[in-house]
Amino acid sequence: MIILLVIFGTIVVNLNHQFWLSALTRKVEVAADVAVHVQLVTEEESPLGIANRENGYLARSVIQDALVDADVFFLHDSAGNSLRSVFEKGRENIAVVAAVAEIHAANGYAGESVRRDMKLIDGQSYVWSSTRVGGTDRWFTAVMKAPGHYTLSAYLLSPSFLVIILAVVWMAIWTSTYIVRKFVNKIEENSTILHYRSMHDSLTGLPNRQKLSQIILEKMAVLDTDRQRLYLLLVDLIGFRDINDTLGHDFGDQLLTRIGVYLGEIEADRVDVVRMGGDVFCLVCTEDLVKDDASRLSDAVRDKLQCSHELNGVPVAVQVRIGIASYPENSVQPEELIRFADIALAKAKSLRIRECYYRREQNTHSLRKLTLLARLKTAIEQDQLTLVYQPKVNIHNHSLVGVEALVRWNDAEYGPISPIEFVTWAEKSGLINRLTRWVLNTAEEQSRAWQVQGYMIPIAVNISPTNLSDPKLIPLIEQLVTEGSFGNSMLELEITENAMMENPEQALKSMEELCKMGLKFAIDDFGTGLSSFSYLLKMPISNLKIDRAFIMNNDENDKDAVILRSMIKLGQGLGCIVTAEGVEDQLCLERLKSLGCDCVQGFHVCRPIPADELLRWIDDSGWVAQDKAA
User: Fold this and answer.
1) Contacts of 456 (CB under 8 A, 6+ apart)
2) Distance between CA 10 and CA 170 in Å, rounded?
3) Residue 24: pLDDT band by 50, 70, 90 thresholds?
4) Planar angle of CA 128, 129, 134, nearest 5 degrees
5) Can you count the helices (H) and strands (E) in the chain?
6) How far apart are alpha carbons 5 and 25 in whole angstroms?
7) pLDDT at 148
8) Rounded to the nearest 5°, which phi and psi values hold at 251?
9) Could you read off the pLDDT of 224-245 as tens digits, one per residue?
10) In what order do the strands lie in the sheet with 280-288?
11) pLDDT digit string, tens, across residues 69-80
12) 155, 212, 246, 486: which is deepest, by most CB within 10 A?
């Protein structure tokens, strides 16, 4: 700030000196011009006649008035040598005259008619101006002291400068305050706009998911839990994608905007409407303890939305599914409440029902599941899983026809994990391909070890529909067959009916390619799925495994027995070996034998056991004659 003031003061002093120089130059020019015109330059050149004396006196008067403020005024040549002149003033100031002579002697100023500048003489600041007389080599020079307060130090301390500085400072403060206030106001305005946009949907103008938690907390704060409940209703539009694909996204956006308006008209005084994103909306409301009130609101939503909406002249019908969660029964945390309503909505959609209230058993998503999924990936990579084997025997000659490899996981922290649980998670999370490849590699190693010990035991491995689309599956199996121990039909792949029918063309293509390598296929859980007989005829199936649901009933007159007998005949008629799963007792075994079933598998024969125990079972159980082992 001080530097700026000094610079400002210097500029002001310089401007004032320039002003004084300009003023003095004009006066010298006037004086010189008058002197020349009335021939009053030097005493020798001034023989005035009587007629011109009056003009001379007048000229002297004009010159004296013009130079009344000058301290020195004299005539000199271009070298600075002083000449006698009618008009002289202050020639006795030798220092000033000498300084002017020095300036002219040093510079000459050839070709110039006017020269002016400032000069510090004996510590005093002077302004001077020289004017050439006509076209001669003579000059009139006037010198004047610069007023004391126009020096920089004096000016900076002068009252006038202080007043100016105070005015400038005040203006600077006011201007900066004004600018800062405008800037802050603009920032606050932009912040308000950005906050609003972050909390509201740009399409419908409704609050968005970010705002939902705040709305829930505000309603929780004033809720009378003794008499009221807080409900979240998640509303999903069924088939909205078809509308987008048919009419375009612009018309889809129009429908969403219209639905936002319709929902906002439902008991607007106590219901908050939020757009969650996509085609999902959320209604937050307080109701009396009776659940029917939430159902009543759900009915109001369907009545409002499930009508014909015309878009671009095309009538569009809207169907909705609604998931409902409540506070405080389901949760006291807003985020959990939202998640539970979403789970209820997913359940309503999967069951194709109008609405669904959240129940704890619906929540298959948990921290334990997420943790175990991560640990399962590590378990596969670090070989922390194990295989157990369940024998399959021919009930007519008691020979071992093979074993089924079943994966087990005993986690260090969570203990034994059910295969039904973790295999399902692996299927949904995308780990199933890695898991199946691990099972195949491990089973092949065990098959190699048994063969070294003299046991040729075919192994069956379960595969999923996802595995049939795995580009690494067929190359891996080919390697295990050609380079490993799975040659000579020592590997059988089991696949369920429903898995096979998810993509029958892809399944058929993959199965045919694998069959060329000598592999066999079995349909697992036969009778529980929706297989097509036309595809059964096409599929290269060598084994039908009848699900245990048809085995457990021992009443020969029961309908299950009729179906079981038919399935055995069907399988054998297709040229397949028929294996019954889940044989629990001797009575069931004898019944299956009487019906002509080929093979059995179940706890009555043997539980799934580790590889080393299997060999002891072969030797000691009495089920398998050693010379008949496959």
Assistant:
1) 450, 488, 490, 629, 630
2) 20
3) low
4) 155
5) 21, 21
6) 30
7) 54
8) -75, -30
9) 888 888 999 999 998 888 888 8
10) 271-277, 280-288, 228-238, 319-327, 355-357
11) 777 888 888 777
12) 486
Rounded mean pLDDT, 374-381? 90
DSSP three-state, residue 403: strand
All residues at 6 or more sequence positions from 314 whose CB lies less than 8 Å from its CB, including other chains: 247
| Angle, CA 560 vertex, CA 556 and CA 566 arms, to 5° | 90
What is the secondary structure of 288-344 as a DSSP string?
Answer: ES-THHHHHHHHHHHHHHSSEEEETTEEEE-EEEEEEEEETTT-SSHHHHHHHHHHH
SS3 state of residue 607: coil
Per-residue pLDDT band for 25 (boundaries 50, 70, 90) equals low
Which 8-state DSSP code applies to residue 147?
A: P
Which of the given ranges, 46-50, 261-265, 401-405, 427-431, has the highest pLDDT on average? Answer: 401-405
d(CA 24, CA 288): 98
Distances (CA, A) of 482 to 436, 456, 523: 19, 17, 25
Mind listing the pLDDT tens digit for each residue in 278-326?
899 999 998 876 555 678 888 888 888 888 777 777 888 888 999 999 8
**Least confident among 114-123, 282-291, 453-462, 588-597:** 114-123
For the beta carbon of residue 311, count every other beta carbon within 10 angstroms: 17
Q: Give the confidence band of 554 by pLDDT, cuts at 50, 70, 90.
A: low
Tell me the sheet residues that pair with 129: 116, 142
Mean pLDDT of the chain: 82
Q: Is the model's pTM score more than 0.85? A: no
Both tokens of 287, joined, read 């109701």
Q: What is the DSSP string of 113-132?
A: SEEEEEEEETTEEEEEEEEE
Phi and psi at 353, nearest 5°, equal -110, 165
User: With bands split at pLDDT 50, 70 and 90, how would you rate the model's confidence at 537?
Assistant: confident
512 in Cβ contact with 541 (< 8 Å): no
Residues 6+ apart with CB under 8 A from 313: none
* H or E stretch at 431: none
Q: Are 207 and 215 in contact (CB under 8 A)?
A: yes
Question: Pick from 145, 85, 139: which is nearest to 113 by CA?
Answer: 139
Rg (CA), the chain: 54
Which helix H or strand E contains 613, and what residues bound it?
helix 611-620
Q: Residue count of the chain, please give it.
A: 630
Q: Are the C-beta atoms of residues 155 and 149 closer than 8 Å to each other? A: yes
